[in-house]
């Protein structure tokens, strides 16, 4: 579109208005969420200021592009001055001209909502986009100048594709499914890496393999390829969900892992722990591989550190080659794990429980990230510099790979003084608040206070009766707290949460800030109607059923669809501590993203809640509904 003088005036006017608004409220809160390195720029995505900040070679901010709709991922076109940004809630890809610092196109995604990850192959032929609803990998063919996006293919993936990595062939993609799913042949829910490949001359023929991580894995947020394409590296949380939470010591609750996947056999080779014996490496959020394939760098968002792994050495150890000095180290009267593994490779699963293995083999170095909440990494093409996006510090840190003590940190721009909500956000994401730093609140309450898809066996309501993680959205409006209403009010529950994970008294100021953050969380409208407008009518009919003959609204009432009371709806676990079978009516807001359901997470779909796990017909009047009406009711539940 050509711009007429009056349009120009309007645009300038619009910007002036925006500028005034920002100034009236002072400087923005700054939160680097993603970083990419171009030929002569480092590009950082500031999520809360909604800006793409271009830094020059000296890391001086040299240009800014305003974005919309919770921008959460960025990638660049190799050799071209272009960036692509995922504007999540606006459901669009913004194409940014990095010479003029402006959005030149916005492309809506047809058939998918909430883009959360992006990648371009190294020849700049394909743009890959991961959407959360439904969970899909969209493949676009890029025109010669990189600004034309021709939709080619959409491949279903598992759940919340938080990160993508492209193999050297350009057509094999590793997808990090952040949240766990139920997979055939796997005991217990787990997150998985999907390996997708397609044939450009016959795009209809694509292939996907899902490679499960060890059961209890969640928070899979980073994947990277080895330069030769032989391996995929994935970083994630590994919950010890099968043991009760009686103590945090030595990773009895959450550990943090690196899984290595062989892309030829499409199998997981090994999972090793990033933690140390008495110190967790909490919330791994991203991983990059050095261009020569010798080192991995992992960002620990909860511990505010990086881990450097000598991955080439680790591969040699996994292949059974143990250096002499290591061979001689004994582990309490027996040969150490690497020697035992060499002699019996089938013991490789022991690594999933071994907090000392990487340290013992001297392949791991932990170092400060240069700021708080490191969420993303990028490495320069010569491998000399690692860039770290420190979310809560509003800064970018450049670290020399030759000497990691040499580093430089720059701010993305003038920043607002943190208020209670912002301070609370850092507390929520800060693993230093937990004993030995094993996890943060965000480890289990992912995506800003929501769920990890796992069940945990806390002590307060007895042992042997795990509870599915509850979303914290609207917590002050959904009292009492916990599935068994073990705490009456939200503030006390937050204070208890901090205390029990920290094992020492917490200052009131800290609880107040954390509570301010949680109380400010609001439900996000369901993105599903965006994907399929045809759902609107069934959802409207479903609402009538919900309030009418299905008899749901008696208990599920008010803005969060809960009466705040305990009821027995026939889902009792039979555990002696909960023989009455009564549970706190849960909020139904955001059901579209909080699977699994019911107090112990037994149901993976809403249909299962209403049918498979409602055999005794005590949960509403589902028996009065026809099959079509049940579909309508579910359409309504997914729209909440
Ligand atoms: C190990 C995983 C895990 C961690 C870490 C964790 N939570 Fe939870 N949280 C849960 C589970 C599981 C429940 C449900 C417990 C139940 O129903 O008895 C829950 C419930 C809650 C509730 C009650 C919500 C409601 O509406 O009933 C609050 C509040 C809460 N957590 C806050 C926190 C805070 C604050 C932190 C950090 C200090 C935290 N949690 C850390 C797993 C976790
Ligand atoms: C007598 C009160 C009552 C009625 C009526 C009722 N519910 Fe529930 N609902 C509950 C309780 C209590 C739970 C928690 C059960 C559990 O955790 O095992 C629940 C759980 C749910 C869940 C799972 C939510 C989650 O996140 O785990 C859904 C979905 C749900 N109800 C939908 C409905 C629908 C649809 C109807 C009408 C057909 C209905 N409910 C009628 C009390 C009720």
Q: What does it look like?
A:
- The chain is of the alpha+beta class and 640 residues long.
- The protein contains 14 helices and 34 strands.
- The protein has a four-stranded antiparallel β-sheet with strand order 1-2-3-4, with no helix packed on it. It has a four-stranded antiparallel β-sheet with strand order 5-6-7-8, with no helix packed on it.
- A hairpin with a 5-residue loop joins β17 (217-225) and β18 (231-239).
- α6 (420-428) packs across α10.
- Residues 483, 550-552, 554-556, 567, 569, 571, 583, 585-586, 588, 591, 594, 597-599, 606, 609-610, 619-620, 622, 633, 637 line the site of one heme C.
List strands and helices in order, with pairings.
Elements: H1 5-24, E1 32-37, E2 42-46, E3 51-55, E4 61-66, E5 71-76, E6 82-87, E7 92-97, E8 102-108, E9 113-120, E10 126-133, E11 136-142, E12 149-156, E13 161-166, E14 172-177, E15 192-198, E16 206-212, E17 217-225, E18 231-239, E19 254-262, E20 267-273, E21 284-289, E22 295-300, E23 305-310, H2 311-318, H3 324-327, E24 330-331, E25 334-335, H4 337-343, H5 357-360, E26 364-368, E27 374-379, E28 385-390, E29 395-400, E30 407-411, H6 420-428, H7 441-444, H8 446-449, E31 455-456, E32 467-468, H9 490-502, H10 508-519, H11 528-531, H12 536-547, E33 566-568, E34 582-584, H13 606-610, H14 627-638
Helix pairs in contact: 6-10, 9-10, 12-14
The structure holds heme C (2 copies).
The site of one heme C has 27 residues, from helix 13 and helix 14.
């Amino acid at each position: 579109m050509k711009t007429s003088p009056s349009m120009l005036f309007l645009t300038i006017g619009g910007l002036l208005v925006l500028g005034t608004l920002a100034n009236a409220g002072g400087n923005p809160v700054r939160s680097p969420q993603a970083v990419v390195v171009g030929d002569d720029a480092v590009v950082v995505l500031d999520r809360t200021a909604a800006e793409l900040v271009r830094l020059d070679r000296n890391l001086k901010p040299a240009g800014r592009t305003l974005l919309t709709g919770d921008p959460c991922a960025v990638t660049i076109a190799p050799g071209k001055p272009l960036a692509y940004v995922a504007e999540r809630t606006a459901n669009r890809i913004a194409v940014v001209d990095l010479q003029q610092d402006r959005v030149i196109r916005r492309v809506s995604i047809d058939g998918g909502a909430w883009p959360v990850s992006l990648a371009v192959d190294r020849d700049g032929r394909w743009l890959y986009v991961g959407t959360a609803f439904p969970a899909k990998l969209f493949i676009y063919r890029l025109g010669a100048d990189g600004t034309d996006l021709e939709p080619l293919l959409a491949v279903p993936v598992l759940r919340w594709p938080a990160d993508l990595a492209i193999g050297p062939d350009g057509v094999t993609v590793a997808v990090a499914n952040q949240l766990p799913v139920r997979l055939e042949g796997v005991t217990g829910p787990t997150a998985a890496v999907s390996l997708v490949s397609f044939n450009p001359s016959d795009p209809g023929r694509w292939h996907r393999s899902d490679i499960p991580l060890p059961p209890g894995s969640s928070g899979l947020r980073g994947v990277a390829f080895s330069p030769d394409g032989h391996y995929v590296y994935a970083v994630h949380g590994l919950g010890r969900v099968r043991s009760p939470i009686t103590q945090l010591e030595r990773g009895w609750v959450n550990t943090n892992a690196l899984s290595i996947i062989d892309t030829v056999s499409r199998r997981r080779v090994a999972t090793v722990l990033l933690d140390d014996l008495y110190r967790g490496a909490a919330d791994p959020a991203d991983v990059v591989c050095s261009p020569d394939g010798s080192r991995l760098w992992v960002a620990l968002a909860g511990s505010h550190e990086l881990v450097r792994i000598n991955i080439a050495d680790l591969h040699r150890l996994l292949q059974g080659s143990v250096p002499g000095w290591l061979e001689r180290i004994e582990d309490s009267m027996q040969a150490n794990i690497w020697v035992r593994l060499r002699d019996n490779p089938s013991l490789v699963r022991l690594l999933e429980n071994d907090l000392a293995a990487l340290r013992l083999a001297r392949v791991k170095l932990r170092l400060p990230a240069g700021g708080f909440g490191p969420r993303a990494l990028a490495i320069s093409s010569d491998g000399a510099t690692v860039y770290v996006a420190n979310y809560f510090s509003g800064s970018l840190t450049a670290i020399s790979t030759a000497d990691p003590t040499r580093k430089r940190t720059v701010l993305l721009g003038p920043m607002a003084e943190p208020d209670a909500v912002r301070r609370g956000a850092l507390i929520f994401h800060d693993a230093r608040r937990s004993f030995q730093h094993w996890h943060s609140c965000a480890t289990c309450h992912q995506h800003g206070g929501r769920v990890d898809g796992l069940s945990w066996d806390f002590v307060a309501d007895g042992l042997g009766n795990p509870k599915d993680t509850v979303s914290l959205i609207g917590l002050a409006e959904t009292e009492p707290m916990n599935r068994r209403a073990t705490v009456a009010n939200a503030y006390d529950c937050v204070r208890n949460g901090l205390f029990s994970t920290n094992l020492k008294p917490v200052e009131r100021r800290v609880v107040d800030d954390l509570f301010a953050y949680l109380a400010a969380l609001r439900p996000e409208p369901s993105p599903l109607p965006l994907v399929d407008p045809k759902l609107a009518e069934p959802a409207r009919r479903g609402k009538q059923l919900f309030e009418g003959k299905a008899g749901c609204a008696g208990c599920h009432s008010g803005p969060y669809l809960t009466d705040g009371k305990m009821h027995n709806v026939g889902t009792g676990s039979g555990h002696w501590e909960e023989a009455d079978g009564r549970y706190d009516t849960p909020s139904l807001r955001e059901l579209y993203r909080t699977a699994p359901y019911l107090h112990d997470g037994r149901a993976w779909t809403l249909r299962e809640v209403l049918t498979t796990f409602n055999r005794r017909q005590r949960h509403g009047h589902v028996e009065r509904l026809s099959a079509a009406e049940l579909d309508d009711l579910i359409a309504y539940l997914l729209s909440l």
